[in-house]
Amino acid sequence: MHELAVSKSILSLVLKNAEQKKANKVLAIYLAIGEMRKLEQDWLQRYFDYISKGTIAEGVHIEVKKVPVVFECKLCGKEFSVNLHEDKKLLCPFCDGFEYTLLSGRELLVEKMEVR
Ligand SMILES: [Zn+2]
């Protein structure tokens, strides 16, 4: 999904939530984002600056927590994390297995938000 579309859907979720809480202002949004998504805090902040204009979330601070990419090996059952910046073949470091399931790394969650 495109970053702008992602930002917009997060914002509408946050605004709906803020409305339910009868908040006057959204101060900060804390996101948990899997490293696979390659969404950077700087870019998200810029998008939110742009799309939040004229809403109660205008000027909101975006805080991103990266969720590491973790796989579970289908052969030995062990869990391992991966540095996606290294461009090498993905193998289980315990048994060299090449079949695995993704446990985390694709998250996109609003963990919490600060309102007033
Ligand atoms: Zn293994």
What is the number of helices?
A: 2
CATH topology: hypothetical protein PF0899 fold
Q: Please outline the major beta sheet.
A: 3 strands, mixed
CATH class: Alpha Beta
Which distinct ligands sit in these coordinates? zinc ion
Q: Please, what is the average pLDDT?
A: 93
* SSE ordering: HEHEEEEE
Instruction: Give the fraction of residues assigned to helices.
Output: 25-40%
- Proportion of beta-strand residues: 25-35%
- Under the CATH scheme, which architecture would be assigned? 2-Layer Sandwich
Overall shape: it is: elongated
Total separate domains: 1
Q: End-to-end span in angstroms?
A: 31 Å
The low-pLDDT segments are none
Strand order of the largest sheet: 2-1-6
E-strand count: 6
Radius of gyration: 18 Å
Structural class: alpha+beta
Task: Walk me through what this model shows.
- A 3-stranded mixed sheet has the order 2-1-6.
- The chain is built from 2 helices and 6 strands; from the N terminus they run αβαβββββ.
- The longest helix has 18 residues, at 3-20.
- The protein has a single domain, classed as 2-Layer Sandwich (hypothetical protein PF0899 fold), CATH 3.30.2320.
- β1 (26-34), α2 and β2 (61-67) form a beta-alpha-beta unit.
- The model has no long low-confidence stretch (mean pLDDT 93).
- Helices cover 25% and strands 31% of the residues.
- The protein has 116 residues and is α+β, with helices and mostly antiparallel strands.
- α1 packs across α2.
- The protein has helices at 3-20, 41-51; strands at residues 26-34, 61-67, 70-73, 79-81, 100-104, 108-115.
- The protein binds zinc ion.
- Residues 73, 75-76, 78, 92, 94-95, 97 line the site of zinc ion.
- The site of zinc ion has 8 residues, from loops.
